[in-house]
Amino acid sequence: MDFLSATLSRVKPSPTIAMTAKATELKAAGRDVIGLSAGEPDFDTPQNIKDAAVAAIAAGKTKYTAPDGIPELKQAICTKMKRDHGLDYTPAQVSVGTGGKQTLYNALMATLNEGDEVIIPAPYWVSYPDMVLLAGGTPVIVETSLESSFKLTAEQLEAAITPNTKWFIFNSPSNPTGAGYSREQLKALTDVLMRHPHVWVMTDDMYEHLAYDDFEFCTPAQVEPGLYERTLTCNGVSKAYAMTGWRIGYAAGPVELIRAMRKVQSQSTSNPCSVSQWAAVEALNGTQDFLAPNNEKFVRRRDIAVSMLSAIDGVTCPTPEGAFYVYPSIAGLIGKTTPKGTAISTDEDFAIALLEEADVAIVFGAAFGLSPNFRVSYATSDEALTEACKRIQNFCASLT
Ligand SMILES: Cc1ncc(COP(=O)(O)O)c(C=O)c1O
């Protein structure tokens, strides 16, 4: 349609949202579908956070705020950055947006020109390449592998950098693999970046608190202080605080960049919801006690998913360090046929057949740029997860 912009034609709708919508549609039609496709915790938002929101409404904190956040929230973010990572930021170096997604988008919109390249390791969170395209840049996808536990190596990063590279997008623990970079693994990457002063780092720390076993989260500017001046550290309250619907994300970085991001936001959405901002102040400043019990549940579910999926012939499922996803390979199932006669030639065929013939919704690997795999989100009850994994086992066993 000529009426639509050329930019839009380069972008695809979010496949994770599409898979969840298809599962919802089948459920509404009466099918007993188990959804393992949505990227959100099944826990409720903690009570103290809800109470802070109710108090904000009662106190009339329901008006426009500064476009990129109230001073109280910016201060809470500075305090958090110092407490958790030893990083010093002032409120002028902080931007609050409507979800983590908006802050990442603002930063790309504020900085990309035609010809600018953005390095994105695959598999990646579905929105990175499309946001880069919307902002007029060029995504440079670098595929990782099962063998490197889906982590980018220093050699790969070095080889991907060109004079046109503007940003390197880094995400640990990762959506969709759950892979978390150790300090040493991250240091190997930051050493490369130190040799290329024109490359900026956009780190997406959204799953910071969802780190398991003895994995210790760290962020690039903490591992390599020399990168502080060209790092945008992005985070949000959506995942760890079970606040996906409240829509609060934030970023900390150089003042000039933060100012440019505010300009984008002030001419698009203006401030994020005032009530949600007050709730986020409580999330960051209040008790963090619920994180550990939530993580215990996540670890148990991760172990259920890994052990049940690894038991399937043709499936390889590594154990990730964090987030609430596993990303098994189905290389051993490609070329097979379902009982209803559907050929499994790609991971998309697998995902569609699994939904239609076994009532389990997952997301196919092609959506995240690395195939043949699928992503399971284990942020659901132990019972639903176990039943879904049984169905996946039976479905895979039925392939010929
Ligand atoms: C890696 C990653 N970054 C950012 C986001 C966006 O989070 P928000 O819901 O706060 O926009 C998500 C959500 O799925 C994510 O997985």
Automatic annotation (TrEMBL):
Enzyme class at the top of the EC tree: transferase
Transferase as UniProt keyword: yes
Keyword terms, alphabetized: Aminotransferase, Pyridoxal phosphate, Transferase
Molecular function GO terms recorded: L-aspartate:2-oxoglutarate aminotransferase activity; pyridoxal phosphate binding
Catalyses which reaction(s): L-aspartate + 2-oxoglutarate = oxaloacetate + L-glutamate
Cofactor: pyridoxal 5'-phosphate
EC number: 2.6.1.-
GO biological process: amino acid metabolic process
Segments crossing the lipid bilayer: none
Pfam families hit by this protein: Aminotran_1_2 (PF00155)
Residues annotated as signal peptide: none
Domain Aminotransferase class I/classII large, residue spans: 32-392
Oligomeric and partner information: Homodimer.
Similarity field: Belongs to the class-I pyridoxal-phosphate-dependent aminotransferase family.
Entry protein name: Aminotransferase
Organism of this sequence: Roseovarius albus
Taxonomic path: Bacteria, Pseudomonadati, Pseudomonadota, Alphaproteobacteria, Rhodobacterales
